[in-house]
Amino acid sequence: MSSTDTLPSPPESCTTEAAKYNFPSSKNIPPTESIFESIIESSELPREKSQSLPPGAYVNPAFLDFETSEIFHKEWISLAHISQLPNPGDFVKVDVCGEPMLVTRGKDNQIKVLSRVCRHRGMDLMPNGYNYPDKGNERVILCPYHLWSYEMGGKLVGVPEMQEADGFDRTEVCLHEYRSEIWEGFIFATLSKEIAPLSEKYSGLRDQFIGKWNLAEAELVWDQHWDCEFNWKILLENFMEAYHHLGAHRKTLEPFLPAKGCWTEPYNENYSVMHLPLKENMKEEILASGDAGTTMKPFPGLAVEDYTEWWVYLGFPNFLIFNAPDRTYWYRLLPTGPETCSLTTTMLINPATKEEEGYDETYESEVAAAIAFHLEDMEVCDATQQGVRSTASKPGRLSHLEEPIWHFQKYLADRIKQYKAT
Ligand code: FES
Ligand SMILES: [Fe+2]
User: Fold this and answer.
1) Beta strands in 191-229, from DSSP E residues, in sequence order
2) Distance CA 350, CA 327 (A)
3) CATH code of the region 32-73+205-421
4) Ligand number nearest to the C-alpha of 241
5) Does 121 sit in the ligand 1 pocket, CB within 6 Å?
6) Which of 61, 105, 369, 396 is the most buried (most CB within 10 A)?
7) Ligand 1 binding pocket includes 123 (Cβ within 6 Å)
8) Domain locations along the chain
9) What is the rounded average pLDDT of the residues 305-321?
10) Is the CB of 142 under 6 A from ligand 1?
11) What is the per-residue pLDDT across 226-266, written as a single tens digit (0 to 9) for each?
């Protein structure tokens, strides 16, 4: 028996929605100001001295208020991929920190990000519990309250019993439209009028790294929603470091993406990039044969060298991409409370893969593998949230394999400094 076989394993079946009582955080939640100071101090340490965030950053409601107003309501937030909305009438529903949004493709084929707030008396047009799914296709959206109806481009088209409302003209009424941008096939929105276009902010990320995947041509073939019992940054930090391949993924990812070989690009104020080279003998085989050796078709445009590693990208604040030669995992991650978040895990592929013989079986096994390694992450994230709530929790030292976490701290510290300066 190898030594790793004796390490603890997650339960066979686990659910992130298990009913459990969350004791009020027993830590005396520190005032936001001390969390701010601690994050700024951590971010200024050299990488070799870096440490994790103060526990209050994962439990403090006032800190989430700061994140909501200074990050989620000011930055570009990724909501959907264009391949999820191929036809007029298609929609994807997303909630961004209290903002009910709807990504739609109207009958004019334009993609828009609309508000779901009804222009009558303000009901969310698609509240949970009514019969609208999280994604789908509709000709019109009907508000369940008084049956005002809107076409998918946002125009009000039906209003019962409003003939006596003096001067009311339904053609002047439209759902609010958020500022949006499509970047490499991903649809982003922002509440900010001032923020620079995303194409500027992420230009280096596209030109030096992600661009060659040409993700605008990729197809999203799998998505799964998870309601999580942990702070959004617990998942983000887990996503961005390969150190945990040694423990949490020792049987799934570590055998071919060993933690030891991973390395991080120098800090950039807009994004963080980590390289995950394949195991040495796999790399040699690929370089000798020129064959990617992947189960699905690699993305066109990649060179043979690109077949020898995987990549993890974080576009600040929460655009999470895990790229392999033949698939991209995009995670849509949004806070739903100080100690909860909503996560949608997805997989995008080269559409040519779907023409290959045996695609259905490949799809099944790839989705099963994605869920398997994701469940390993969910277990450790759940348990980390329980840990950071404890009175005994305090910042711990980071490995060089966790460098993207230190990058993210610098991003957070910049937001805090900007907030304090205004
Ligand atoms: S609130 Fe929507 S129709 Fe009245
Ligand atoms: Fe992981």
Assistant:
1) 219-228
2) 7
3) 3.90.380.10
4) 2
5) yes
6) 105
7) yes
8) 32-73+205-421, 77-180
9) 98
10) no
11) 999 999 999 999 999 999 999 999 999 999 999 999 999 99
- Which atom belonging to ligand 1 lies closest to the Cα atom of 118? 2
Handedness of CA 13, 18, 21, 24 (dihedral sign): positive
pLDDT tens digits, one per residue of 18-57: 456 667 776 667 789 999 999 999 999 999 999 999 999 9
170 lines ligand 1 (CB under 6 A): no
pTM of the full predicted structure? 0.94
Distance 6 CA to ligand 2 centre (A): 20
Nearest bound ligand to the CA of residue 119: 1
Residue 124 Cα to ligand 1 middle (Å): 9
Judge contact between 296 and 362, C-beta under 8 A: yes
Average pLDDT, the chain: 94
Q: Which atom of ligand 1 is nearest to the CA of 121?
A: 1
Flag whether pLDDT at 336 surpasses 50. yes
Give residue-wise pLDDT tens across range 345-362.
999 999 999 999 999 999
Tell whether ligand 1 has an atom less than 6 A from the beta carbon of residue 145: yes
Cβ partners under 8 Å of residue 289, min gap 6: none
The tens digit of pLDDT for each residue in 398-414 reads: 999 999 999 999 999 99
- Which 3 state secondary structure label does DSSP give 309? strand
**Residue 2 confidence (pLDDT):** 45
Tell me yes or no: is domain 77-180 CATH 2.102.10.10.
Answer: yes
Ligand 1 close to Cβ of residue 143 (< 6 A): yes
Which residue owns the Cα nearest ligand 1 atom 3?
146
SS (H, E, C) 60-99: CHHHHHHHHHHHHCCCCEEEEEHHHCCCCCEEEEEEECCE
117, 132, 146: residue to mutate for ligand 1 pocket, most atoms within 8 A of CB: 146
Give the residue-averaged pLDDT of 55-64.
Answer: 95
Residue 10 confidence (pLDDT):
60
Q: Is the CB of 150 under 6 A from ligand 1?
A: no
Q: How far apart are CA 366 and CA 248, in angstroms?
A: 19
